[in-house]
Design goal:
The complex is a heterodimer of chains A (176) and B (409). Chain A has 176 residues and is mostly beta strands. Helices cover 0% and strands 38% of the residues of chain A. Chain B has one domain: Porin, CATH 2.40.160. Chain B is mainly beta and 409 residues long. The chains are: A mainly beta (176), B mainly beta (409). At the A-B interface, strand 7 and strand 8 of A face strand 17 of B.
């Protein structure tokens, strides 16, 4: 059996699944000099899913004692960072194209992560129990989407007025 | 063993096309299958792979290719069941359906349990693991990466697949007869390799990791050179075990160094009748020592092993050989890699009884070049070309072209 070995306590539980909530159809500009972090800690990706706006740079710091080798063969972004150790950060990558980027580690095959590249600055992630708050939205009529995974995207129409707070529950029958 | 396939050349091509298409269509789909509900005290996970290998061979076929044909198709289904009971107990079973453990060894079809073992981790970590069953040897650094998903090449390095004129089935009739094997074509169903592939013999092991150091010791039913048929449960005999160990040092994620050693009788029961009077199988051992090295940085990985073996041959004395390989892999793009391996094997001189000292088998050098492409995380293809050279009559063919496509789930 060619399995890698980890020391006691090294393997953390995977990050809790969350949904990404984003506003579709709102006017947006490309992200400025924004940097997001998708670290590896406890032989897991630190985020189950990391939402970013197109044009964002993402860094991939390794916080473990062993090598990691993050790669993705997704159509949205294909890359392979090679092997790198703690403190030896590989080059940050800029994500220019909206879509789903599935992340893996070539060495630790249980590791799974997602970067969701969105064409909007209006997004957030839910808590583990599914609650969210999305602030600073422009007035108008849009679709609010909840991305759970590539096959499960819920959608709800929403009309926003200046200064108004809207409460919304997604209906799981309203899939994309 | 269940006969399954009797294939003509045309059928092989059709099967290759069908399986290849199926694998490409399946690529990117499915993950490991969880067999039990989440609240079960036992986690049971089924994973597997489908490999499709083709070989274009310059005869006599080199290495562990058991075919007289110029082309050969080897499909393989592997299923791996992992069981975990809490932090201390785990087990695994690996089953395979193919045309023989080595390509062509049972060309009419074969189904086997290649590995099965139960593991106890008393502290629930990697400090100490006790394992009993049928599993890969702890020797060296190629065996832990011998599966098709981890090996940059289609074939194994020379020490793990080059056959030479030592047999476990009978004692040589004379020194001349032993030396005469050197000019014969390899008898792969009778002769041995230095280490036969991953050496899935039965036994028990202690292994673990303490800070920068790794250790592993095993007692197995058969020698490292033993053939797959000798590993089967019905052949299991414990009278002449082999003891193998490895100590590893990994001071840095980039670098790992290991030393391995193994000793044990290599002759099988069938050789008993031909043993010299008053001797026992335990009097004739295979002793092997090795040093292994791994280095990796960014997109480059390097592995190397030097392995020395001494066979005690009845009526002949010591037959020594040494092997060396170094291989590197470089990822050119996220999907494409190139790999290069240099293999060498040297056979020592022994007295011919008439004042001469010829080497007891043919020295070998071989270069392997491979390209690999990852179509998806769980779908990869490889193409390998090998050029090998052995001097003398009936030497193995020099050229080998091999391809492999692997889908994992």
């Amino acid at each position: 059996m060619g399995r890698y070995q980890l020391k006691a306590g090294q393997l953390a539980a995977p990050a809790k699944p969350v949904a990404v909530i984003y506003l579709e159809g709102a006017p947006s500009a490309r992200a400025g000099n924004t940097v997001s972090i998708m670290g590896q800690r406890g032989y897991q990706f630190e985020h189950h899913v990391l939402p970013i706006q197109t044009g964002t740079r993402v860094e991939f710091p390794n916080h473990d004692e062993d090598y990691h080798n993050v790669f993705s063969l997704s159509k949205t972004k294909r890359f392979d960072l090679g092997r790198y150790r703690m403190g030896e950060n590989p080059p940050a990558l800029t994500f220019d194209k909206p879509g789903v980027v599935r992340l893996y580690c070539e060495i630790h095959q249980h590791m799974r992560g997602v970067i969701l590249v969105l064409d909007t600055p209006y997004f957030t992630t839910t808590t583990a129990d599914g609650k969210f708050r999305l602030k600073g939205l422009p007035a108008g009529s849009y679709n609010l989407k909840a991305w759970l995974d590539e096959k499960t995207i819920l959608s709800a129409p929403v009309t926003l007025k200046a200064g108004q707070t809207v409460r919304l529950n997604f209906d799981s029958s309203n899939r994309k | 063993m269940t006969p399954v396939l009797l294939l003509s050349r045309t059928q092989q091509v059709r099967l290759a096309c069908t399986l290849g298409t199926a694998i490409l269509l399946l690529g990117g789909t499915t993950q490991a299958i969880t067999l039990l509900p989440p609240d079960s005290p036992v986690d049971a996970t089924l994973t597997g792979s489908i490999d499709l290998e083709t070989y274009s061979i310059d005869q006599p076929a080199p290495g562990l290719l058991f075919t007289d044909d110029d082309t050969y198709l080897e499909p393989r289904l592997s299923l791996l069941l992992d069981l975990q009971w809490g932090p201390h107990w785990s087990a695994f079973v690996q089953a395979r359906l193919d045309r023989g453990f080595d390509p062509g060894a049972r060309s009419d079809g074969d189904i086997r349990l290649d590995e099965y073992a139960i593991r106890w981790s008393p502290w629930g970590d990697s400090m100490l693991n006790v394992q009993v069953g049928k599993f890969a040897s702890v020797f060296g650094n190629w065996i832990p990466r011998h599966l098709s998903t981890q090996n940059p090449f289609v074939t194994a390095p020379a020490p793990y697949e080059n056959v030479f004129g030592i047999t476990d089935a009978a004692v040589p009739l004379s020194r001349e007869a032993f030396l005469g094997r050197k000019t014969q074509a390899d008898k792969k169903r009778d002769w041995l390799t230095q280490i036969w592939g991953p050496s899935y013999a039965h036994g028990a092991s202690l292994s673990g990791r303490l800070d920068q150091f790794e250790y592993a010791f095993e007692i197995k039913s058969n020698a490292l050179s033993s053939r797959p048929s000798a590993w089967e449960a019905r052949e299991l005999v414990w009278y002449h075990p082999t003891i193998t160990g490895r100590l590893g040092w990994k001071p840095d994620p980039a670098f790992a160094l290991g030393i391995s050693g193994s000793t044990g009788a290599y002759l099988l029961e069938t050789a008993d009748a031909t043993l010299p009077t008053g001797s026992d199988r335990d009097d004739f051992k295979q002793d092997t020592v090795g040093i292994d090295l791994r280095y990796s940085i960014r997109h480059f990985e390097l592995w190397s092993e030097f392995i020395f073996t001494r066979f005690e041959v009845p009526g002949v004395g010591y037959a020594d050989l040494a092997s060396f390989y170094v291989e590197g892999r470089y990822k050119i793009t996220p999907s494409l890699y190139a790999a290069l391996r240099w293999n060498q094997q040297w056979f020592d001189d022994i007295s011919d009884g008439h004042g001469g000292s010829p080497s007891w088998d043919r020295d070998l050098y071989r270069v392997d070049v491979a390209l690999g492409y990852r179509f998806a995380r769980n779908l990869q293809g490889k193409v390998q070309y090998s050029y090998g050279h052995e001097p003398g009559l009936n030497a193995n063919g020099s050229h080998l072209l091999a391809t492999q496509i692997t889908w994992t789930f």
